[in-house]
Hints:
The complex is a heterodimer of chains A (111) and B (114). Chain A has 111 residues and is mainly beta. Helices cover 0% and strands 59% of the residues of chain A. Chain A contains no helices and eleven strands. Chain A starts with a strand and ends with a strand. The mean pLDDT of chain A is 91. Chain B is mainly beta. Chain B has no helices and eleven strands. Chain B has strands at 5-7, 10-13, 19-24, 31-38, 42-50, 53-57, 64-68, 74-78, 87-94, 104-105, 109-113. In chain B, the strands form two sheets. In chain B, strands 2, 4, 5, 6, 9, 10 and 11 form a seven-stranded mixed beta sheet that branches. A four-stranded antiparallel beta sheet of chain B has the order 1-3-8-7, with no helix packed on it. Chain B is globular and about 35 Å long. The N and C termini of chain B lie far apart (37 Å). The A-B interface holds A 30-31, 35, 40-45, 48, 88, 92, 94, 96-104 and B 4, 6, 31, 33, 35, 41-43, 45, 48, 55-56, 90, 92, 97-100, 102-108.
Amino acid sequence: GEDVEQSLFLSVREGDSSVINCTYTDSSSTYLYWYKQEPGAGLQLLTYIFSNMDMKQDQRLTVLLNKKDKHLSLRIADTQTGDSAIYFCAERSGGSYIPTFGRGTSLIVHP
Amino acid sequence: KAGVTQTPRYLIKTRGQQVTLSCSPISGHRSVSWYQQTPGQGLQFLFEYFSETQRNKGNFPGRFSGRQFSNSRSEMNVSTLELGDSALYLCASSLARGLNTEAFFGQGTRLTVV
């Protein structure tokens, strides 16, 4: 079945760039998503990318997709303490309405 | 526009009891999905409802059930609670079922089974 893998933790200094990586196995993935979950809250969609795109930029966020390697990354420029949260990668394949989520990467931003 | 509302926010139950969680989707949204989030398993899909019908079901035992009402509000029920059912239960609503429709999540119900 589908599988989405992420590293569990990432620690960065405030002002640096953060790069959160994700790999997936379903080659028919059509939409790939990044969600953010702050403590005590639900998931908030940050951005998504279609599988026919290589890159998408939205303010401080840059999503890169390497479809050949099934690798997705989220880069956060000028990381702030408010960016500390859990970031989930998710994918949706052409045959399913249900996204498959990774386990989430805890981003810790320290001064 | 109100977001997805889940009630209650926190719940403590004892083993063997049953529990019902509620989710009110964003007005106009017809698709509601439920997820279980635990530190060990991450986000696991439970089921999806659309127009009062269960359209997809995850790999959970029959103790987990749900339903959707004509106003799109949804409930999930867990019977004969086990300690391992302690988790954050998240509900997500979306306008339709297309792949390009965004899912909006509620804040979740934190269930603790003691």
